[in-house]
Amino acid sequence: MKVYNTLSRKLEEFTPLQNKKVSFYQCGPTVYWVQHIGNLRAMTWADLIRRSFLYLGYDVVFVRNYTDVGHLVSDEDTGEDKMEKGAKREGLTPQAIANKYIKIFEDDTSSLNILEPTHKPRATEYIKQMIEMINNLIESKHAYVTEYAVYYDVSSFPEYNELNHQKIDFNKKGLGKGTVEDTQKKHFADFALWFFKKGAHKNALQTWDSPWGEGFPGWHIECSVMSKSLLGNTIDIHMGGVEHISVHHTNEIAQSEAANEVKFVNYWLHNEHLNVDNAKMAKSQGTGFTLQEIREKRFDPMDLRYFFLQAHYRSKQNFTWEALSAAKEGYARLKDIVLHLKNDPPSSIQINDYQKQFIDFISNDFQISQTLALLWDMLKSDLNSSTKLYLAADFDRVLGLNLLEMKNDVIPQEIIDLAEQRKIAKINKDFKTADILRMKIEEKQYTIEDIKGDVEYRIKKK
Fold first, then answer.
1. pLDDT band per the 50, 70, 90 thresholds, residue 344
2. φ, ψ for residue 208 (rounded to 5)?
3. pLDDT at site 359
4. How many domains does the structure of the chain reveal?
5. For 78, how many CA atoms within 13 A lie in the half-sphere containing its CB?
6. Domain contains 66
7. Which of 126, 191, 215, 377 could make a disulfide contact with 196, Cβ separation 3.0–4.6 Å?
8. What is the pLDDT of residue 426?
9. Longest Cα pair distance anywhere in the chain, in angstroms?
10. How many CB atoms lie within 10 A of CB 234?
């Protein structure tokens, strides 16, 4: 198994901390708004990676958190807390906002057939542990207290830029900017561990007592604490979007390794962005599409999952409605093929190399698009139907397309026979007979839809 480690910028052999066990943390959503399909692509990819490990016989403990406090709009130390912004927008409490959008998010991930996490902690449930870690950092001289916040001192951690590969001169004077009120901030890269309820945050809606004053945690400390609490001081895999490399994940490493005095993460995985019409997805431009909008365009969420399978997680993927339409058609054809296999008489499973190729693909930094192509090649091969059905089910353990979970939709053999007779009639240009056969199919409460040059077809129950 080889994975691309952002820390080293190269493919590395995966060696877990414990044999055949994987500790896996993914940065989850800030639950102040509906997640767009770019965020859902990230969640789908973590699911595909997790499923790949499960397929290969690993025991995976998977944590995906909910940020329900402390994430500022700027992603740094200025701006309004996103949860408070959501609360003010809708006239609800931050907790009610969190509950509302967690429910929507979990409905969306379920619709995309994303497996439930082993743990799904909320940041507000770990305030005590955050205070303990911050206190540890203050005592070890990695953090300092100002009038408005507790800051992490980045100059105290020599490896601060190991992940983001940036160059910062910590000795250069005059770099303490921060907010106007906080002139005590030593360096612009120092980041807040705890904000006090004063200054820009004097009207904060979510605050807790601490040894340094009433306030709330910074965003970065939350993931470090939840990861430590549920997975331990050192974990195998941490995943997030590429936008997290420069600040959020860099800060997580600094505070975790300073507090715990051990390596934080062995393998950093980062997914690229989903573009729309070759431009950045943006809510302000009307392109931050949600799953509800996908449904309103008469697409099934699983059409979107099939679309996501067609590009690698470290590559940008371009979303267009035309591309989603093509994915919908491809997914429907795939299901039809598997459905017809189910109606063939059983026979012995043939030994073949497709399974080995599949394992090779997922073991090389999760080449899911290649496994999808392999599935199509296998279904077009001369293997017998039982073998094809077995391999389709086997591959679907990773792909998660529910290819064999259509038992209630099995088409009666009588309808399939009529459809095949109609197909032959159309090939022979006997359209009168084809129309008669179509009407017979409809009389039995089924519809037939022509695809791909009016030869291939799709049968549905009315």
1. confident
2. -140, 155
3. 97
4. 3
5. 9
6. yes
7. 215
8. 87
9. 87
10. 17
